[in-house]
Amino acid sequence: MKPLVAAVAVLVALATVAPKLMRLRIRFFKWLHWTWAARVTEEHFERWVLVLRTVLLVLAVALLFFGVATKL
């Protein structure tokens, strides 16, 4: 149960820094000279952040429910 709680905590922490992770992704694309990918990510920045946060929080909730279900 403890590793699942730690994983949930990490996922929630990553969800809070989602905008920084997306900016890091844009910088990485620019470093690779993938200007088209950086441009697409910049144009839809808010949507990408929302999707990333949603995915991370859904994973956190699923892990939490899985941990509680296996505890019973």
UniProtKB/TrEMBL annotation:
**Keywords linked to the UniProt accession:** Membrane, Transmembrane, Transmembrane helix
Which residue windows are transmembrane per the record? Answer: 47-69
Q: What is this protein called?
A: Aerotolerance regulator N-terminal domain-containing protein
